[in-house]
Structure to design on (333 residues):
């Protein structure tokens, strides 16, 4: 359990007054911003869907419905449900122009040959219908072989392919290989690269220029390339826009953290910068205003931010408080 020093009553009152005022303002502002963003996302998503539907109608035109009917019949025979077929066709309507026996069946057989069960294939393809639109010999099989060589294990490759079949749609030779070489050049070990490749393969598919900038930034921050935190930092920066990063910085700065403390916390536990501003504020509010802990102490133990407030932080703090009240432990633990 992380050891936390209990602050004096004066400091606790000071932080309570500052924290409560900030929390009230932040909560109101966050609620308004969240509502606006949610509405904007819904409007944008609806508009995009309508535009895509119109594009589909223009692109997919059949003289007769025979080909489309044969594809739907083929999917049903492969175990697709009506819902899966509907979603599949909506996301990748061009598949309806495919020849079931010549174009589709070989790809289903390939998935079966690498260990994907018949029952898993519909679920996998429903999330990535574009998979069936790529050439088996020129792209899908070569990409799978590249993954297998990199992961050094058929089981790992199967796991990776089942989690995100879309990986096989990319030109792995163009970006992934070069990005892996960038990691090797700065001293990242093979086991850590395998972790990134298995857990977060999308991180290795960005352009080499972008990936190099991310890695250089992480090196400047002082991360040790031999540690898992380095690859987690790659994932954090790759998956976060600059504006998002700045908002997380601001969230911590509101609670008195300096930029140096935020960087230290990020180096110790990169997950602390991948939590939402709402989660950050809730945890800090409870630890500072409810429990009276110093913000600097939390900065040194940033893994706490990643814990569940309801399931872990609150129950443990209640036990800690009970032990203090009943003199079962000394005040300065």
């Amino acid at each position: 359990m992380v050891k936390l020093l209990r602050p004096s009553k004066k400091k606790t009152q000071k932080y309570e007054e500052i924290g409560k005022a900030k929390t009230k303002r932040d909560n109101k502002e966050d609620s308004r911003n969240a509502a606006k963003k949610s509405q904007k996302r819904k409007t944008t998503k609806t508009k995009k869907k309508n535009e895509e539907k119109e594009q589909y109608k223009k692109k997919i035109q059949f003289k007769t419905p025979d080909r489309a009917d044969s594809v739907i019949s083929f999917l049903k025979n492969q175990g697709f449900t009506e819902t899966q077929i509907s979603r599949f066709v909506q996301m990748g309507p061009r598949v309806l122009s495919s020849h079931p026996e010549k174009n589709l069946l070989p790809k289903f057989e390939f998935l079966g040959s690498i260990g994907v069960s018949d029952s898993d294939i519909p679920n996998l393809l429903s999330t990535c219908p574009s998979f069936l639109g790529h050439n088996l010999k020129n792209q899908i099989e070569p990409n799978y072989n590249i993954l297998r060589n990199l992961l050094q294990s058929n089981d790992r490759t199967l796991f990776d392919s089942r989690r995100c079949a879309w990986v096989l749609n990319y030109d792995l030779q163009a970006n992934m290989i070069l990005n892996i070489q960038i990691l090797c050049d700065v001293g990242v070990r093979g086991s850590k690269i395998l972790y990134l490749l298995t857990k977060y393969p999308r991180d290795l598919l960005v352009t080499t220029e972008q990936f190099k900038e991310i890695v250089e930034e992480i090196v400047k921050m002082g991360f040790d390339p031999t540690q898992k935190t380095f690859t987690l930092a790659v994932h954090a920066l790759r998956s976060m826009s600059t504006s998002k990063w700045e908002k997380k910085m601001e969230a911590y700065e509101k609670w008195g953290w300096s930029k140096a403390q935020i960087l230290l916390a990020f180096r110790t536990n990169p997950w602390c910068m991948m939590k939402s501003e709402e989660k950050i504020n809730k945890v800090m509010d409870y630890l500072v205003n409810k429990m009276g802990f110093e913000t600097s102490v939390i900065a040194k133990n940033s893994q706490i931010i990643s814990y569940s407030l309801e399931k872990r932080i609150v129950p443990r703090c209640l036990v800690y408080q009970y032990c203090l009240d009943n003199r079962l432990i000394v005040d300065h633990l």
Q: What stands out?
A: Residues 1-5 have pLDDT under 50 and may be disordered. Residues 9-59 form the longest helix (51 residues). The chain is about 65% helix and 0% strand. The radius of gyration is 26 Å.
